[in-house]
Amino acid sequence: MIIFFGQFLIYGALTILLENMYQLRLKQKRIDYRQRDHSNNEEDDDVAKERELVNNAHLADVDRNLLWVKGLRKEFKSKSKISKTAVHNFSLRIPRGECFGLLGANGAGTYKIYRPV
Q: Range of 10's domain?
């Protein structure tokens, strides 16, 4: 009986130790990810072209478009006071008479773009 109790204490202590080490490692990975600079993402050529069209538009061009969005940004503040950016510098123009659909991967921020628009 004493042997079983000793094994219970040793294995229980090892389990708690391993779980805490795992949780600390996950927490450190989250902190490293949040501190990483995500602004160096490369844009596709068509995305860069569209951004230039929106940024260099004249007032006459605005009348030809049904929807015009420039530099949309959406951030969420967490309990730890670290902001998480869902949408960063989103620009878009939709000409009149054009059918448009916004596609994105799950969690890519498409719903966060539709809400303010």
A: 1-36
